[in-house]
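hiii so um. not sure if this is the right channel but i have a protein structure encoded as tokens and i wanna go backwards to a sequence. like what aa goes where. can anyone help
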């Protein structure tokens, strides 16, 4: 196990003049750079439940950010539309002009869904992508429907891989997306094979991976801008 504190190039304080997507990309890089050291932290209680992993990871990221990425706070469970909550969010540590918009510590500029791979039960097998009904939506599906991150153009999903490998799950999830695209409509979403996950980078030694996907969104019948999802995976 490796408990080294990996380096990141995402540190610094900026109070104005930064684009939204640039700050979101820097934040996803910071998360990616710290996933392995979080998993391998000798003080971290060994857990497998998703909600406990989310809380652990949020605490770790916020602690590391105080020295390495001080412009950002990480928050556990942020309210979204219709009283839904997303697992982790990132907000500025102080007032920050992002693009032409003022963000305070109450305004998340990045929201992060977290999912276990595989899902905890057979009937939820494809929940990383799409749920079994409107009440139990899947990870990507929530972003496509505007239930999470409705005002954002870039978001993230963290995958806790508890069985198989990163490559296995990229292949499997892309297989499911292509299968959904053949039906065109599933649980309120239309799907296209161009929405598959594409490779960004990975670290075989640390067992972490980074993928990206782009999706069309519809919210309350209205077509929104596309959303870009960064998929940050770690083999637990």
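sure thing!! here u go:
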């Amino acid at each position: 196990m490796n408990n080294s504190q990996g380096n990141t190039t995402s540190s610094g304080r900026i109070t104005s003049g930064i684009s939204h997507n640039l700050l979101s990309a820097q934040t996803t890089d910071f998360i990616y750079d710290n996933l392995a050291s979080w998993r391998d932290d000798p003080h971290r209680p060994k857990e497998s439940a998703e909600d406990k992993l989310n809380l652990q990871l949020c605490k770790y990221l916020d602690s590391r950010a105080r020295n390495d990425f001080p412009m950002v706070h990480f928050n556990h469970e942020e309210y979204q539309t219709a009283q839904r909550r997303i697992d982790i969010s990132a907000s500025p540590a102080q007032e920050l002009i992002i693009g032409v918009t003022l963000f305070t510590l109450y305004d998340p500029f990045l929201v992060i869904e977290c999912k276990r791979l595989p899902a905890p039960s057979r009937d939820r097998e494809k929940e990383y992508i799409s749920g079994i009904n409107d009440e139990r939506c899947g990870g990507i599906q929530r972003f496509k429907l505007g239930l999470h991150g409705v005002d954002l153009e870039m978001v993230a999903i963290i995958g806790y891989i508890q069985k198989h490998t990163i490559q296995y799950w990229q292949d499997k999830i892309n297989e499911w997306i292509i299968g959904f695209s053949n039906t065109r409509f599933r649980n309120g979403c239309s799907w296209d094979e161009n929405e598959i996950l594409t490779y960004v980078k990975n670290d075989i030694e640390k067992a972490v991976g980074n993928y990206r996907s782009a999706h069309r969104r519809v919210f309350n019948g209205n077509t929104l801008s596309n959303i870009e999802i960064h998929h940050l995976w770690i083999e637990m």
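oh and The longest helix spans residues 20-39.
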